[in-house]
Every structure is written in C-alpha cells, then in structure tokens.
Design goal:
The complex is a heterodimer.
Chain A lengths: L10 E16 L5 E17 L3 E5 L6 H8 L7 E6 L2 E2 L5 H10 E4 L13 H11 L9 H11 L16 H13 L5 E5 L7 H18 L2 E6 L2 H7 L2 E6 L2 E7 H6 L4 H9 L41 H5 L5 E4 L2 E3 L12
Parallel strand pairs in A: 3-8, 3-9, 6-7, 7-8
Antiparallel strand pairs in A: 1-2, 1-4, 4-5, 9-10, 11-12
Chain B lengths: L17 E12 L2 E13 L4 E5 L6 H9 L7 E10 L2 E2 L5 H7 L4 E4 L3 H4 L6 H13 L3 H14 L5 H4 L9 H13 L5 E5 L7 H18 L2 E6 L2 H7 L2 E6 L2 E7 H6 L4 H8 L39 H5 L12 E2 L4 H7 L1
Parallel strand pairs in B: 3-8, 3-9, 6-7, 7-8
Antiparallel strand pairs in B: 1-2, 1-4, 4-5, 9-10, 10-11
The chains are: A alpha/beta, B alpha/beta.
Chain lengths: 339, 340
C-alpha cells in the first residue's frame, strides 16, 4: 500500500491511515453535529532518519492539521503512528514528556508565535523550565547563548524582546527554541512563507545546515513548490486530506503521474520571461471543494480533465501505477511539466 | 494638457497614461521621520504592464496609495514630486477632480479581498453603489451591469452570487469580485497591489490569466505590485525594482532577468529556490533592508552589496542609462551589465 514495509529500522516516524475529523456544530444552546470537516483522511508515510519529507498542497488540504496530530496537539480520529518503533499516539506521562522533547515544531508566523512580553533569552530557554533534565539551572544561560549563536543571532541580544527583531531574525528565534531540547524530528509548518525573498534564502540555508550538523529529520510543510524541492529528499502531495502522490524529490518534480501534481507544478510561475508562452500550462477550473462534503470516489475528479465515470465510483488507492512511485489516480501517467 | 475622458474614448497616443515624477513621501512617526519614498519616477502607457517589484518596506504600496490619493495623511506627508494622469498633476488637483479620476480613470485592487470588501453589504450592492452614485444608474440597470461584470470575471451563477455576502465567496472568488468592482467604471489604468499573494497557486494562475485577458481586451494600463519574481516574469512588459524608497532599476522584463543592471536585482534572482533544479546552498543577500528612519549614506544598498566600493558609501548613485531604455541607480551599472 505504501512504499516501505521491508526494513523499518531507519524509519524514525511511521504514519499509517491517519485520520482527523473535526465535528461541525450548529445551534446555540443545543449543539448538534451536522457533519465533519475531514481535514486529514487516511494519510500514510514514513520518515527516515536524517531525511526531509516535504508535504505540499493548497490551503485546506490538511497539511497543518497533520502537523498538529504529529505534535500530539490534536488527538487523531483514527490511525496509527510510531516514533522509533513505539506507538506515539498512546504515549502518556513520562514517555510522552520524552516524546515532546524529541519532536519539535517551527511555526509559520514569526510575529504571533513568539510571546511579545518575554525576552529572547526566556523564549529560547523556556523549554529547559519544562525539561530541566536537559540543562541544569546553572548552565542554562550558556546554553541559550550557544543556541542563539548556532542560528546566527548575536548571543548578546539575549535580553531583547521579539519586536526588536526583523521577521527573519524572529524565525531564527523560533528555530533556536525548537532546537533547545535536542530533538530528533522537527516539523516545519510553512517556516519561510511569511518572509521576504532575500531573507527566505537565509533561513532555508540555516535549516539545511542545522540538519546536517545535528542529524535532524524534517517534516517540511509548505505550499511553495520551489521551496519544498530545494529542501526535500522525498515529497508527498496532499489534496483534500489525502496524499495523492508520494515519491523522491526527482520523481515528483521530473516524473509526476497524478493530474493534480501536474497541474500544481504547471501553475507555479517560473522566474524566466524567456519561457513565457513556451511552457505547457494546465489550468484548473474552480476552487478546492469543501472538506465537509468531499466528492465521491477520487476527490480531485471535479477539477480533473481526465475524469471518467470510474473516478466518481471508485476511490483510487495510493499505489505504484506509473514511473515507479505511488500515485492515487486511476489514469496515472507520467508527464513532464517542469522545463 | 489633456483632461480625463469620462466617455472612455481612450488616451492621447503620445502622452503616457500615468507619469510619477520624482515623488517624495515621509512618514512622521514617534521614532522620527521615515523617508519612505525618495524620488520615485515611472511611467505607464495604455496597454502596458509595469511590474513594481520590491520587498516589504521598499515603498511599492505607498507609491500606489499616493497615485490613488488614498495615502493616510498624517502620518504620511508628500514632500515633493508630481503624479500626472494624462498630463494633469493629480497632487495639486482639487478633491472633486481627484474623486472623478478615482474609479473611472485609475482603479485599484488590493491584496486581501476579505478585508477590502465590506462584510455587511452584498457583493452586488458594493459593485452597484459606484454605478448609481457615479453614473446615475437606476437600481435595476446597476444590478444588470453588476451581473454582467461578475460574468466578465467568470464567476459561475452570477445572477445568484450577486445577492451573496463576501463571506459566502471563496478566496479566489472574492478576488474576482474585487476585480469586477474595479472594472465597473471602465478605468484606463488598474493598479493591482499584490493581487494573488493570499491565494493558492492554482487559483493565482486563474486570476493572473483573467487580469491579463481583461487588460489586453480593454487596452488598459496595469501596474502590478508584487514581491513574486515568478509572477512578474510571466506578465510584465517592464519592471521597476524598488529598494528603500527608490527605484534602483527599471528596464524591460527580459533584460532584467537576463542581465540585471543592479546588484540588488542580481542578488534577488540568485537567492530564489528554483522549481526546475534541485539546489544545494542558496546564494543569500547578507543583512537586512535598512530602516527607513536611518537610510545609509551613499547608495542605500551598499552595506549588503558584494561590489560596494568607497564611492558607494559616500555618493548616492544617479540614474545611469547603461543601455537605451534601461535605468539603474548603481555606480557600476555599465560594468555589471557588461559582465553578465
């Protein structure tokens, strides 16, 4: 069903059929559930040690909900996930505390994800309050300085407040906080999308450097396909709560087989005016349907130019169909899009 | 001197539609005077797309707000320059005249359609309002025209949608509704301030196609304000690159990408992750854009520039003309283009 199974020794994270539905309630006094937002609806993937798995998709595809479930911030509706071979969704008490050290997150908006009343030193050092075993009290100030240095900030700025920093610097603070507990996995939820182009490159390079220095594994969630290609070893493409195609960075970008992946790639404007009018362009009609009431069968069929009757009746499984990597399309066919 | 032709008969061929001439704007803040625009000049002809490219704080939106006459004063103060529409300076024109130009001469669409639309009125009402006030149309005629406009921007079931409120529209549809609204009075120039930044790529592609189509059909001038080098490459005829309240480079789109004439443009292009190649280390621009309260002496880009020499630290570079039709505010513009 998915790409592995034989040797799970190098997998730090294994996610199987993960589902997260949010109830939709109406009424003021007597709240009734009238439906569910199927934010994540059966997602499976593996994350290998030291690798980056990119997760791409448009707004509402469930990529941020996936991050929250992986962080154990939201309980899943069903499905399983193991961290280093142990069931991470059932963990409690001391075991869960340990898990929280091992999986950290970097959030999208560096303006709202840092407490404006705390100094940078307090923000980066706060994880040590909760997990004192990582750094004994006396050594904390030194650790915080080291962390600021690692992410390219001046360690002397320890006593400043977040508003005294630019967007890119704040994102570095967020990264330092995520690194504090020496995690094994970092979930990056749109870490560069709020940043200007010239700053984005600095933060992306930093994430790359930290990965090789500390042997981190990343789940890198983003909507920008160029950014994802740059940092990812493997890529999962999501649409309406499901992974529609998964493969290595090269398989997804050079040999995409799912029509949605192809449309997504062709919609990205390429910064080269010479290619204007010479690229093949697939234009999708309309908007993404509501996740409360997704289309029957294949969820992409309402916007797909290949759709046949079978697409409405039968949901295509995510399996190897063409070009040697899994794709959830009845008519999967390799087509090269990127010039 | 020509005047705005309210009947929409079109501009006088030789004069540019819009000419922004040496515009200076300051913001008086608690911390001091921020010099937000420092001599911005550009021209747009009918049927032409000018992309104004820059990072946050470069002054691209403030220029547009000044052109539209919607700059908040205070804190903003226009300290110099002119904005000529068909040769008429709008900055010295009386308010009545400015109101006449707004909407029918120059219209604008904004980044965040949800906050630009009024949540308590229907989309139809907001389109019709302009037609009734400015064109004196009856409710019935205005409604008919609003439906036509929504059809023009390809909103399905326009007849039903015209009665709905903004929150009932998806993000892409709201942006379409805003485009419909901006077209209601048949403007000759449309300013689009980050029109697709809040949208997903597949929807962004739809909206850019629509804008381009409408522009060609109506032979409209279009100023596209954006930070997205990809979008610019796909639609712009000419590009003006802004940095710290100045235009540092201006040229036709192909030249800018093939042989950038300013180190900032070159560095920006170099720092982009590309869809068509798996990169290793990205080239970065060191440091941060300067605070507008304390713009460095000389060339404002010199603290971040790899080519900076002594002259860059002391002398503000004038606009060079390294090639016909190109401008660059770099002391070494000629060398830079020759090296490329």
């Amino acid at each position: 069903m998915h790409e592995t199974g034989e040797n799970s020794g190098d997998n730090i994270l294994e996610v199987r059929d993960l589902v997260k539905h949010f109830p939709v309630r109406v009424g003021v006094l007597f709240k009734r559930v009238i439906g569910h937002v199927r934010a994540v609806d059966g997602v499976s993937f593996d994350l290998k040690r030291g690798e980056t798995l990119g997760v791409v998709g448009e707004s509402g595809c469930g990529k941020s909900t996936l991050a929250q479930v992986l962080m154990r911030l939201e309980p899943p509706t069903s499905g399983s996930a193991t961290f280093e071979g142990r069931d991470m969704l059932a963990m409690k008490g001391a075991e869960l505390r340990k898990l929280r050290r091992d999986i950290q997150i970097v959030l999208q908006d560096p303006y709202t994800s840092l407490n404006p009343r705390m100094t940078v030193g307090d923000i980066v050092g706060e994880p040590f309050e909760i997990h004192p075993e990582v750094a004994p009290k006396g050594s904390r100030a030194g650790r915080v300085r080291d962390l600021l240095d690692v992410v390219g900030l001046n360690p002397e700025h320890l006593n400043r407040y977040p508003h005294q920093f630019s967007g890119g610097q704040r994102q570095r603070i967020g990264i330092a906080r995520a690194l504090a507990l020496k995690p094994k996995v970092i979930v990056c939820d749109e870490p560069v999308s709020a940043l200007d182009v010239s700053i984005q490159a600095q933060v992306m390079n930093l994430l790359g450097d930290l990965q090789s220095e500390f042997g981190l594994s990343y789940v890198f969630i983003a909507h920008d396909l160029s950014v994802v290609r740059h940092l990812s070893d493997r890529v999962a493409v999501m649409y309406l709560g499901k992974v529609v195609e998964i493969g290595t960075e090269e398989e997804i970008y050079e040999r995409p087989t799912h029509p949605y992946t192809q449309a997504l790639l062709s919609a990205v404007p390429v910064p080269d005016p010479e290619l204007r009018g010479r690229r093949q362009v697939i234009r999708l009609e309309g908007d993404v349907p509501s996740p409360v009431d997704p289309p029957s069968g294949c969820r992409f069929r309402t916007r797909c130019w290949k759709a046949q009757d079978v697409c409405a009746e039968e949901e295509p499984a995510l399996e190897i169909r063409a070009a040697n990597h899994p794709s959830a399309c009845h008519f999967a066919e390799q087509r090269s899009i990127v010039p | 001197m020509s005047t705005v032709d309210e009947t929409g008969a079109g501009p006088i061929p030789s004069a540019p539609l819009l000419e922004v001439d040496d515009l200076f704007v300051e913001f008086h803040t608690r911390d001091g005077v921020a010099r937000v625009l420092n001599g911005v000049s550009y021209r747009v002809a009918a049927g032409e797309t000018l992309a104004v490219l820059g990072e946050s704080g470069s002054g691209k939106s403030v220029t547009a707000q000044t052109v539209m006459g919607i700059l908040d004063t205070p804190p903003g103060v226009i300290t110099g320059g002119a904005v000529r529409f068909h040769g008429e300076d709008l900055l010295t024109a009386p308010d009545r005249r400015r109101r006449a130009v707004r909407g029918s001469g120059i219209a604008m669409i904004f980044q965040d359609a949800l906050s630009a639309l009024n949540p308590v009125f229907t989309v139809g009402f907001q389109i019709e309002e302009q037609l009734r006030v400015r064109r004196g149309m009856s409710r019935k005629d205005a409604r008919k025209r609003a439906v036509e406009l929504l059809e023009l921007v390809k909103i399905p079931n326009a007849r039903g949608r015209v009665r709905q409120y903004p929150h009932e529209f998806s993000g892409g549809m709201r942006q379409r509704a805003m485009i419909a609204m901006s077209l209601a009075l048949d403007p000759e120039l449309l300013i689009a301030d980050e029109p697709t930044t809040a949208l997903d790529v597949t929807v962004q592609a739809q909206i850019m196609d629509l804008l381009k189509e409408i522009q060609v059909e109506r032979h409209m001038g279009l100023i596209l304000i954006t930070h997205d080098l990809g979008v610019v490459a796909e639609v712009a005829d000419r590009i003006a690159v802004m940095y710290a309240g100045r235009i540092v480079e201006q040229a036709d789109a192909r030249s800018v990408y093939r042989r950038p004439g300013h180190p900032y443009t070159a560095a920006l292009l170099d720092s982009l992750p590309r869809l068509d190649q798996k990169g290793t280390e990205l080239n970065t621009i060191k440091g941060l854009p300067p605070s507008l309260l304390r713009i460095p002496d000389g060339c404002p880009f010199h603290p971040r520039c790899a080519r900076a020499q002594d002259v860059c630290r002391t002398e503000v570079p004038p606009q060079h003309r390294p090639e016909p039709g190109r401008l660059s505010a770099c002391h070494f513009a000629e060398e830079l283009i020759a090296d490329a």
